[in-house]
Amino acid sequence: MESALKPFRVLAYCVGVMLLVLCTAMVLRYGFGIEGISKFVAPVHGFLYMVYLVAVMNLGMKARWSWPYMLGIMLGGTVPFLSFFVERRVTQRVHAQTAVAGA
Protein backbone atom coordinates (compact mmCIF):
# COMPACT_ATOMS: atom_id res chain seq x y z
CA MET A 1 0.00 0.00 0.00
CA GLU A 2 2.89 2.38 0.74
CA SER A 3 4.18 1.92 -2.81
CA ALA A 4 0.88 3.26 -4.19
CA LEU A 5 0.76 6.15 -1.70
CA LYS A 6 3.75 8.08 -3.04
CA PRO A 7 2.46 8.45 -6.64
CA PHE A 8 -0.94 9.44 -5.25
CA ARG A 9 0.61 12.13 -3.05
CA VAL A 10 2.73 13.57 -5.86
CA LEU A 11 -0.20 13.60 -8.27
CA ALA A 12 -2.55 15.12 -5.69
CA TYR A 13 -0.17 18.06 -5.28
CA CYS A 14 0.45 18.39 -9.03
CA VAL A 15 -3.27 18.31 -9.84
CA GLY A 16 -3.99 20.80 -7.04
CA VAL A 17 -1.37 23.25 -8.25
CA MET A 18 -2.42 22.89 -11.88
CA LEU A 19 -6.06 23.44 -10.92
CA LEU A 20 -5.12 26.70 -9.21
CA VAL A 21 -3.11 27.73 -12.27
CA LEU A 22 -6.09 26.77 -14.46
CA CYS A 23 -8.44 28.93 -12.37
CA THR A 24 -6.05 31.85 -12.76
CA ALA A 25 -5.84 31.20 -16.51
CA MET A 26 -9.65 31.16 -16.76
CA VAL A 27 -9.86 34.51 -14.97
CA LEU A 28 -7.27 35.90 -17.37
CA ARG A 29 -9.11 34.42 -20.36
CA TYR A 30 -12.66 35.46 -19.56
CA GLY A 31 -11.91 38.52 -17.46
CA PHE A 32 -9.14 40.10 -19.47
CA GLY A 33 -9.22 38.39 -22.87
CA ILE A 34 -5.80 36.73 -22.49
CA GLU A 35 -6.31 33.27 -24.00
CA GLY A 36 -2.78 31.91 -24.47
CA ILE A 37 -2.23 30.56 -20.97
CA SER A 38 -5.49 28.63 -20.70
CA LYS A 39 -4.88 26.89 -24.04
CA PHE A 40 -1.74 25.35 -22.56
CA VAL A 41 -2.81 24.81 -18.94
CA ALA A 42 -6.21 23.17 -19.57
CA PRO A 43 -4.90 20.09 -21.44
CA VAL A 44 -2.02 19.68 -18.97
CA HIS A 45 -4.43 19.72 -16.03
CA GLY A 46 -6.75 17.32 -17.85
CA PHE A 47 -3.93 14.85 -18.49
CA LEU A 48 -2.66 15.06 -14.92
CA TYR A 49 -6.19 14.58 -13.60
CA MET A 50 -6.57 11.37 -15.64
CA VAL A 51 -3.29 10.06 -14.22
CA TYR A 52 -4.50 11.11 -10.74
CA LEU A 53 -7.64 9.00 -11.25
CA VAL A 54 -5.48 5.98 -12.06
CA ALA A 55 -3.37 6.60 -8.95
CA VAL A 56 -6.53 6.81 -6.80
CA MET A 57 -7.79 3.55 -8.28
CA ASN A 58 -4.45 1.86 -7.67
CA LEU A 59 -4.28 3.01 -4.05
CA GLY A 60 -7.96 2.37 -3.43
CA MET A 61 -7.80 -1.20 -4.69
CA LYS A 62 -4.74 -1.96 -2.57
CA ALA A 63 -6.31 -0.35 0.50
CA ARG A 64 -9.67 -2.01 -0.21
CA TRP A 65 -11.63 1.24 -0.08
CA SER A 66 -15.32 1.36 -0.92
CA TRP A 67 -16.38 2.81 -4.28
CA PRO A 68 -18.12 5.84 -2.75
CA TYR A 69 -14.96 6.69 -0.80
CA MET A 70 -12.82 6.36 -3.94
CA LEU A 71 -15.20 8.58 -5.89
CA GLY A 72 -14.96 11.20 -3.17
CA ILE A 73 -11.17 11.11 -3.38
CA MET A 74 -11.37 11.36 -7.17
CA LEU A 75 -13.46 14.50 -6.91
CA GLY A 76 -10.68 16.07 -4.86
CA GLY A 77 -8.98 17.10 -8.09
CA THR A 78 -11.95 19.13 -9.29
CA VAL A 79 -12.32 21.70 -6.50
CA PRO A 80 -9.53 24.23 -5.88
CA PHE A 81 -7.53 23.51 -2.68
CA LEU A 82 -9.51 20.30 -1.98
CA SER A 83 -6.81 18.00 -3.35
CA PHE A 84 -4.38 19.26 -0.68
CA PHE A 85 -6.87 18.49 2.08
CA VAL A 86 -7.76 15.10 0.57
CA GLU A 87 -4.10 14.16 0.20
CA ARG A 88 -3.44 14.84 3.88
CA ARG A 89 -6.48 12.84 5.02
CA VAL A 90 -5.71 9.89 2.74
CA THR A 91 -2.07 9.82 3.89
CA GLN A 92 -3.18 9.72 7.52
CA ARG A 93 -5.68 6.95 6.76
CA VAL A 94 -3.14 4.82 4.89
CA HIS A 95 -0.56 5.23 7.65
CA ALA A 96 -3.17 4.23 10.23
CA GLN A 97 -4.17 1.16 8.17
CA THR A 98 -0.52 0.20 7.74
CA ALA A 99 0.12 0.54 11.48
CA VAL A 100 -2.90 -1.64 12.33
CA ALA A 101 -1.92 -4.26 9.75
CA GLY A 102 1.66 -4.32 11.02
CA ALA A 103 0.67 -4.71 14.68
Automatic annotation (TrEMBL):
Residues 5-91 form the DUF3817 domain. It is a multi-pass membrane protein. Keywords: Cell membrane, Membrane, Transmembrane, Transmembrane helix. It is found in: Cell membrane. Its main location: membrane. The chain crosses the membrane at residues 6-28, 40-61, 67-86. InterPro entries: DUF3817_TM (IPR023845). One of its GO terms (cellular component) is plasma membrane. This is DUF3817 domain-containing protein.
